[in-house]
Amino acid sequence: MSAQVEAPRTSMRKNEVDVQMLHPGLHSKVFPSSTGTGVAAESRPTPEMIKCAISHLEKSNLWGKDPILVPDTTFPVPHLRGNTIEDHFYNIGVRDSATYKKLAVDFSQLPSHPLPDTWLMQEGWTRYGKDGTISRVEYPLEKTFTFDVETVPALSKFPVMACALSSEAWYGWVSPWLINPQTVDGHQNDQHLMSFGPSPNKAGHEKILIGHNVGYDRARVLEEYSIEQNGIRYLDTMSLHVAVSGLCSQQRPGWIKYSKATENEDTAYLDAFKDTTGKYFDVSAVNSLLQVSKFHCSIHMDKAPRNILMEAKDIKLIQDNFQDLMQYCGKDVTATHAVFQQTFPKYLEKCPHPVSFAGVLQMGSSFLTVNEGWTDYITRCNRLYNEISENVESKLSLLAHQALENYEKDNAFYKDDPWLSQLNWEFPKREWKEGIPLKSGNGYRKGCEPRWVCRAKLLPDKPEWYRDLWDSSEKRIRLSTRQRVAPILLKLQWHGYPLVHSGLYGWTFQVPMDDKEYVTRLDPLTFPLENEEGYQKAFDLQNYRYYRLPHKSGEGMNVGNPLSKGYVSHFDDHILSSYSPPGDSDDSSTKLAKQALDMNAQCAYWVSAKERIEDQFVVWEKDVNGLGKRMGLPSRGETRNSGIILPQIVTMGTVTRRAVEKTWMTASNAKKNRIGSELKSNVEAPAGYKIVGADVDSEELWISSLMGDAQFRMHGATALGWMTLQGTKSAGTDLHSKTAQIMGISRDQAKIFNYGRIYGAGVNFATRLLQQFNSSIDTVEAKQKAQDLYTATKGVKISRPQEYEVVHDRPFWHGGTESYMFNSLERTATAEDPRTPTLGCGITDALRPKYTENQFMTSRVNWVVQSSGVDYLHMLLVSMNYLIHKYDIKARFMLCVHDEVRYMVKEEDSARAALAMQVSNLWTRAMFSYKLGIYDLPQSVAFFSAVDIDHVFRKEVNMDCITPTQKTPIPHGTSLDIEQTLELTEGGQLGEIATDFVEAEDGPAPLELRSVHERQRVMITSEQTSNTSPDMDTESGVILHKPMEAPQEDCLFLEAQTMSSISEIKKAVARKKAEALALWKAKVEAEKQAAAKMIKSGSGDDNDDNSPSDSQKGLVKSASAPKQASLRHVRDASPLFKYGKKVQKPGGFWGRRAEGVDPANHGSDQGKEPVTEVKTGSLEEDVESYELSDMALTEVVEIPVAKAKSTKPKKSSGLRDYEKELLPDFVEKPATASKRKSRLTNEVLAPSMAIWLAQHDDGFHNRSTVDTITTPNKQPPSPPKMHSFVPVDKYYPNSTSSASASSRFMSSSRRYVPPLKQKQARVKSQMQRRNSVVSEKGGMSTTELVSDRNDLDQLAKVTSE
């Protein structure tokens, strides 16, 4: 953001915890349905939530801190396509992907046809039709293909042959190189690409190409080498498999062992894993086509012909094996198509939202532009690397020769040197050979003098360690930093203690026994004694103790090379250093050692990245015939060249669906002492273009904190959420500063701790990391510090059922600043079918709880965070694509590296592209908030802090990118915040809508893709709109709701998460019980009084007539003398039962039930309330003839009332005015029952239902009299609409009809019965009961006859409906 400013507080919107929210103008645009009509009122926080949030922030020492204000920006944001932000994303996702999805779905349903028996060896494409026709074509004719490309890596990166399968034919492509291996001028004729025909990026020209690791094949397609986007999109079956059935890194080694055991029929191994970790083995596989096709399709492939391609050094070998290789390629296509048919439908089930599919298609269309500077870059790096390597080698050689010289001066000098004494100073064995004397006896024969003779012919006068370094071919020793002797010659030390190599423990360091300064809780290493195997003379166990050199993976791991890349930072911090004796000169061995170390550090990056960088496939416009014009790149003159690189991306390469690419997505930023680290800056925009992009600010941290804040229905309600939104580095209130204070480390180091923790890493990870950053700390102290950090942040987990069931249904974290977040993450990760909260994408089968139980929790929690981050990226890309096409912005997606998104944009459109990125970010963040139930967004996260407009690809526009191979600073680019962007776009104008733009639909998203809150609202609305009620806006047809009150036990769980101890939680439970009981008693008394008053006021005077009068109204009628009766009244159960043992819920926070999921109830936190008991009374007679709407009952009590005196039956004309006033307008959350006993319980059905039952069913009165309620001229009034539709049999699957009232009720409530049928059943039941009484009495009275006639009329009328 731009500089923080103090804006007038009165003009800003703030939420209940003082977080600045969106400007009203922006809020009305991105949350239109939540303003004015009150639709989103149920999403507002309750007073209890606000109170709990403030208390939590106070405990974290955050409440009352000065809020961070940002410019209260607003501008004319484009209108949403739909009534809500989720409708908008659904509609633009459909616009972006519907045609491609139809092509893919149709193709997935078509079986492959047989391969051709013989392939023609002619250049270009040959079509083999299903009807047997063979013809030569310029390019394949259909729109959807599965294809595979083959190359000869040792000879060229260009393709040599390919096969493609369509719905109508097979296609074979042969490179001209295979026909004519050499050009006219004698060069290799390999630079050819295959064409799939012209495909403009317009409607009607869409094409889908499918392959396994299709990014590799895409790089050989001619149409992709253009700066203009084409209409071809790519689907990768490897990515589909990973998203559906992929393995996480923790599972892969186990799967490989299990697979080998299966092949080798290792029954012992298989039996050991049968009931434990082996469950995920049968629902997953590694990613190769060989294993994927075997897993999904039971195809056993023969990959042997591939060896010909991999090992060929001459194109003639390919020519000789042409038929076999084409058959091999075709079989790969057949297997790939079979895998696609299996995985694509599963992928659509896992990721049902159109934005997910559209985002994957976008990710697969990346490209990079380079020029001749690319080849210069590689040349510079190799030249400098070779020079430094030679210098390092020469310096190490000099140190080796110095050691020899010192030995010659004093052959015992090394014995007191802790480093050189480790070397083998033994010389080859020599024997004394007697001379051959002359016959004269004076002297010896020439050459036969007595002497010492060595049988070794190689360097007999050099020690063993020196001889091991000798290179016979070059007649000199060869040394590098990778050899074990290098740390010894360099005399490396750890905190001043010499390094000693052990064959048993790797590199160690020795500490004198009498050294009191080095204090550690670690036990010294033990070594074999002199007569034991593995004994080493270098270890003086009498005078020294030895410890392992710390390894980044933790204790117990051996360090192989202290000069490796992982220890460079220790050299920078002088923890790992070279010994320098006092008074040592600059030209000493110590100086040479330091120079060697510096040189080694410079080469570290290039050593690791060199092969991957040189392997990049660059297609140059001047190297391929006719490609220059097709690329569309501006000309750079005769002597300069331009090219395009297509990063070979696996669009869903991990189980979190993150994209994977081995070079560009792992590239680091430029560093001054790292050769080649300026890699990204060698991607340059062509003349007239700019690279426009942004880094998503703390994307995954914000998503994680938002999931915790969602429990309070407001942003910044948790400590983590507040620090993410309001914390600052300067005030030390941001997350990273807080962690740094706790751990005593730098803020940059704290970032690694924080993200690791959020991704699910535990205390052991933090312990190892702390020891890496602070090598002087021992494991015990490091673990204690790590534990303190996790207690302060993550909190303490309650795992014992007798403790957590007091307030919740499962173990939970409490007492930490991040406890709310982790409870939300784990609730999602442990659901039966975990889904991301925004786009509803499911987890891979290999990590579903069904197959992993409680294992791999780190990977599962990490999946929630990172997969949500992928949703964020996909929504951002789809939003940008929509705005680019709508406003004709000349831009194309380039690449996404982690949280960096980059576009290639025409220079004149760069400001509009920057504005489009800001709008896309606003929409994306708003969508996350909306889907998590918060219909608002903080102003501070609505926009990118800056959008970069640059001419090269780099992390920041002001980076000079100075490295050992890049001496000249690169000119800086421009960085625009939202205010600056608005200035350049006339206040936020994206421009005119393109004339040929086809707008997205604006209808509602399907119910199954809507948020939990929206699905609940739709279900309520569908029940209430049948008859217009006072709570309906008659113009808009929208139901107006009152804010939903959170149950007290929910508020208690909110409070419990911030409490530091279980005893504090138990005290809170006791306090809540007492408060709730008092309120409940008062409510019971009030209900009794109200019911008694209603009955009393509803009774009329006696009448002598035997026939009912229409003018006489009455609520009840009795044909006998008045007597004490019981009116059963239904109300909420006693709160004492609500704070008992909780029942484990089958679903997670945003998960789904595995089978039989009702979309209306998906994710609605069913089963949250505990079971309560029926206080009094039985419903055996009261409900035996009713089939209610899939609802359980509430507690039933008997209220003694005096029955009205009457001698005539009275007609009921429906609900009277005073009765209507008794019907509460309320919204209840879905209810559930957790166990079934002899008594029936419920917590949803409101008192209004009891009143309605009392009015319209004579079963609530004394059976000894004939009580009738007749409505001769009207239908019986409908029951009040209820707000919970939880099928009883979902929680009582085994319930059957029995003598108990509860069993009969549950049995009759298995299905939803329409109100009309309920009326019919009610009238029939009344008649049946009356007939039974009449048969016992032997006849009917006049009153009874009239009543029966009325019932017959009523039944006829109801039936006619």
TrEMBL record:
Q: Where in the cell is it found?
A: Mitochondrion matrix, Mitochondrion nucleoid
* Keyword line: DNA replication, DNA-binding, DNA-directed DNA polymerase, Magnesium, Mitochondrion, Mitochondrion nucleoid, Nucleotidyltransferase, Transferase
Query: Biased-composition ranges for Low complexity?
Result: 1295-1311
Q: Cellular component per GO?
A: gamma DNA polymerase complex; mitochondrial nucleoid
Instruction: List the SMART domains hit by this protein, alphabetically.
Output: POLAc
EC number per UniProt: 2.7.7.7
A molecular function (GO) held by this record is: DNA-directed DNA polymerase activity
- DNA-directed DNA polymerase family A palm domain location is 676-909
What PROSITE patterns does the record tag this protein with? DNA_POLYMERASE_A (PS00447)
Identify the domain of life: Eukaryota
Keyword flag Mitochondrion: yes
Q: Which InterPro entries match?
A: DNA-dir_DNA_pol_A_CS, DNA-dir_DNA_pol_A_mt, DNA-dir_DNA_pol_A_palm_dom, DNA/RNA_pol_sf, DNApol_Exo, RNaseH-like_sf
- Where does this chain mainly localize? mitochondrion
Q: Which family does it belong to?
A: Belongs to the DNA polymerase type-A family.
Q: What is this protein called?
A: DNA polymerase subunit gamma-1
